[in-house]
Amino acid sequence: MQTTLDCIPCFMQQALKAARIIDPEDADLHKKVLLEWASMLPSLDLTVSPPALAGIMYKRLGALLGTRDIFAAVKEQANTEVQRFLPGFRATLAASDDPLFDALRLAIIGNYMDAGTPTQHAWEQAMHEERDATWASTHYPRFRHHLASARSVLILGDNAGEIVLDTLLVDELVRMGHKVTYAVRGTPILNDATMEDAKRVGMVDRCEVITSGVDTPGTVLERCTPDFLHRLDQAEVIISKGQGNFEALKGERTGIYFAFKVKCPVVAAMTGRPEKTSIFEYI
To answer: Which ranges carry the Damage-control phosphatase ARMT1-like metal-binding domain (predicted)?
Structure first.
């Protein structure tokens, strides 16, 4: 997916949000950050994906703001908050006629926890209210059929908080007899999950966790490590979580189950699905 002009205002909002997280009261810092980002606009290559450009932006912002992990507190809060709800979610799955479906449903709704989108959604409310299953009508049966003949599953993780809900999906896949590998980002970027988050929420106790090596809020293939790319080639089933991974991989690779929430007008136009829609699609 290429970056569009409509992505640029979103980048500006993200930069301002990052500056306000570091110091909510320092208007001079906020202005400095916006001017720094604005100065980069003429040199941006809009033929690359939004996550690729965001990686450039956040590297520059981190240096400007003097921190390696701008969203560290946001991630810790999200992980802690979601873990409080796990017992109830596990009870839901235990009573489900199709626990894999419900684990996937919860994992997709968890993609609402995204610091890179202009609108923050009430993920907890959505967990209880979103019962529409049309998102699964076409590609979920294919997924079940695919799993029946596959052993290895590679999940491309996305955000902190969301990774807690992904543990439910991993548990179910492992219970079904699959060897699951979960991939996190290589370095802190936005509120994306890293190896530290995987340890914090117990993902490392459930399955093998690896890093893609990327410093971008999406699996930008040219930023991945050779080992990760080899794992990607060898995986029998690939589940890509999150809109950022969709933006980075759409048009770059096929044979992937994309699972995410539509959270911006650009992706809504591309997919033909309204914002807030759950998507589970094999491409």
So the answer is: 5-276
